[in-house]
Amino acid sequence: MKRIFKSAIAGATMMLAGMISAKPAVAATFDGQWNVQIASSNAACPSDVSVSIGINNGQVASASAAVTASGRVAEAGNISVTLSSGMKRAVGLGRLSGTSGSGTWRAAMCSGTWSAQRI
Q: Helix or strand or coil: residue 5?
């Protein structure tokens, strides 16, 4: 169990280091409003949900009062996002490229994929 925990911490540290070293000027190329379509791989979880987010200088923020979004876009378009609504929380990872992007997400009992289009 300790080995798994140490591996998880090491992986998170490496991902965080990559996000911190991102150059904001390059990440800013992804600035703007994005429409994100969320699909679930579990039939018991919500699917076909649409969320609007904004990216400003590589920082992800909410574009909606119903969902709080936070995260960062790194130099190559790699994105890490946390979406929260009340007690619910989901973490997404993926990549943006030009005017679109895609990736995966996970929450306490659900997971799936997401795709995004710049508005």
A: helix
